[in-house]
């Protein structure tokens, strides 16, 4: 090895905060997350659409809390001792967060291991015609013996608005 240049194979990775909804493993980009918090008392919002769980006051700031399971077309999340709130940075919009059933680890996922990576044009098309899951899922990565569904936090509020519009046209 002496005399040979050191070569490093650089693989671009991205950190993801993993969490559970039912038996499925999901991930959100760590760079979009401000904090993970215990579930405080949630104040229901009268006449709010099904995707909105309510509001919480954390350190003097009001956050809208979305039920991510409902946004993904699943059964609403039941409050429990393992529930956590994932709160997002203000760059994503008004202060908001999502309720999840349990937080996992922060994992580094090599970008080349993400399957079904979605381009921006495809996301915009899915936003117009697809299911909420098609709109929110960026790709899938294999983590040990299960699949990790990678979600786009920037599309959460849009998915909520879209699901409410669909609900209005179906009723």
Determine and state the CATH class. Mainly Beta
The residue-averaged pLDDT reads 81
Rg value: 18 Å
The major sheet is characterized as: 5 strands, mixed
Question: Which SSEs are present, and which pair or pack?
Answer:
Layout: E1 13-21, E2 24-29, E3 33-38, E4 52-58, E5 61-67, H1 68-71, E6 84-88, E7 96-100, E8 102-110, H2 120-129, H3 132-136, E9 137-143, E10 146-151, H4 156-170
Parallel strand pairs: 2-10, 5-7
Antiparallel strand pairs: 1-2, 1-8, 3-6, 4-5, 6-7, 9-10
Structure, explained:
It is built from 4 helices and 10 strands; from the N terminus they run βββββαβββααββα. By secondary structure, it is an alpha+beta fold. The chain has a single domain (13-164), classed as OB fold (Dihydrolipoamide Acetyltransferase, E2P), CATH 2.40.50. It has a 5-stranded mixed β-sheet with strand order 8-1-2-10-9. It has a 5-stranded mixed β-sheet with strand order 3-6-7-5-4. It is globular, with a radius of gyration of 18 Å. It starts with 12 loop residues before the first strand and ends with a helix.
Brief write-up:
The chain is of the alpha+beta class and 171 residues long. The protein has helices at residues 68-71, 120-129, 132-136, 156-170, and strands at residues 13-21, 24-29, 33-38, 52-58, 61-67, 84-88, 96-100, 102-110, 137-143, 146-151. The termini are far apart.
């Amino acid at each position: 090895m002496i005399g040979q240049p050191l070569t490093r194979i650089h693989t671009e990775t991205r950190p993801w905060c993993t969490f559970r909804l039912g038996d499925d493993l999901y991930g959100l980009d760590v760079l979009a997350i401000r904090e993970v918090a215990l579930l405080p008392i949630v104040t229901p919002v009268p006449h709010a659409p099904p995707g909105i769980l309510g509001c919480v006051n954390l350190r003097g700031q009001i956050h809208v809390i979305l039920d991510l399971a409902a946004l993904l077309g699943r059964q609403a999340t039941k409050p429990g001792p393992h529930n956590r709130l994932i709160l997002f940075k203000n760059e994503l919009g008004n202060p908001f967060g999502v309720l999840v059933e349990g937080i996992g680890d922060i994992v580094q996922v090599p970008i080349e291991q993400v399957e079904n990576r979605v381009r921006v044009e495809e996301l915009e098309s899915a936003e117009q015609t697809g299911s909420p899951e098609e709109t929110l899922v960026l790709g899938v990565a294999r983590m040990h013996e299960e699949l990790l569904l990678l979600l786009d936090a920037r599309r959460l509020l849009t998915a909520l608005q879209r699901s409410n519009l669909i609900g209005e046209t179906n009723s």
